[in-house]
Structures are given as structure tokens and as C-alpha cells.
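tool=predict chain=A
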Amino acid sequence: MDTQQRIKAQVESNPVVLYMKGTPQMPQCGFSAMAVQVLQACGVGSFASVNVLADPEIRQGIKEFANWPTIPQLYVNGEFVGGADILREMYQSGELQKLLEPVKQQA
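tool=predict ok
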């Protein structure tokens, strides 16, 4: 399975996936930490996370997968949502909470 297939499988098999630097318990950059905090503030208790620092192929591949140059990247129900700035804006406007509401009910 090549890197793009691995990413596709991760995104499609989990309702919420955060590609980040580090782990939710130990983020390795401020943007990743903020993304975790936003998800928790939205009431998403558990979500899949992929530490891109542990896998250089995923680190590069995820940027190509969504055609998005930065990490973190959030996927909900197989769809790319955005990076740190977009998550913050969506949270502040209430959009992210609405998007995540069905996912919270599944968990």
C-alpha cells in the first residue's frame, strides 16, 4: 500500500482524523496543540491522530493528499476541513461545532 492509499484508508476509516506534529497528549508545535484544544472544546473526546513526525512519508504525503502545505490537517467523515487557522475561524463562528455534532453523537 503506497502512502496515498494509507492516508486514504486512515481518513475513510475514522470519523475524525487529525494529522499533527506529536500526539494529542504531547503536541510538538503550537498549531497542533491549538487544533487538539479546539477539538476538545467542541466536545470531541476521542479522535484518530497521526503523528507526522514519526513517519516522513506521511508527513510529505498528507500535504499532497489535500494539496494543503501545512500541518495540522483535520478530516471529518473523510473530508478535508482545514488547517489551524481555518479550525480557529470555524470554531469562533460556530461552524466547527455544527460540523462535529453528528460525530460526537457517534462516539
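The chain has one domain: 3-106. The mean pLDDT is 94.
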